Amino acid sequence: MEDLIARRQAIYNEIYDRRQALEEEVKNLEKTISKINSNIYDICEHNWVRDRDSQYDRAYTYCTKCNMHLRPATSGTASGTHSCLTE
Q1: pTM exceeding 0.85
Q2: Nearest-angstrom CA–CA distance, 46 and 48
Q3: Among the four 1, 30, 52, 77, which has the fewest Cβ within 10 Å?
């Protein structure tokens, strides 16, 4: 019986350790994706369009080339829109 309890605890510990390692790996992959997205956003010659799934949904703006959403304006345009938007 004690052997089974010890084995069970060892398995729980292994699960915990693997989960921690995988969560760390996922965080690193998400950081890499974020950096790639930032690079794509910076170099893409965007073609912004506005879209709305229905009249009750919030409209959003995305690029038809890189499929990324328009980032909120931090300076410059007050409304957060760009003159290059197409309808």
Answers
A1: no
A2: 6
A3: 1
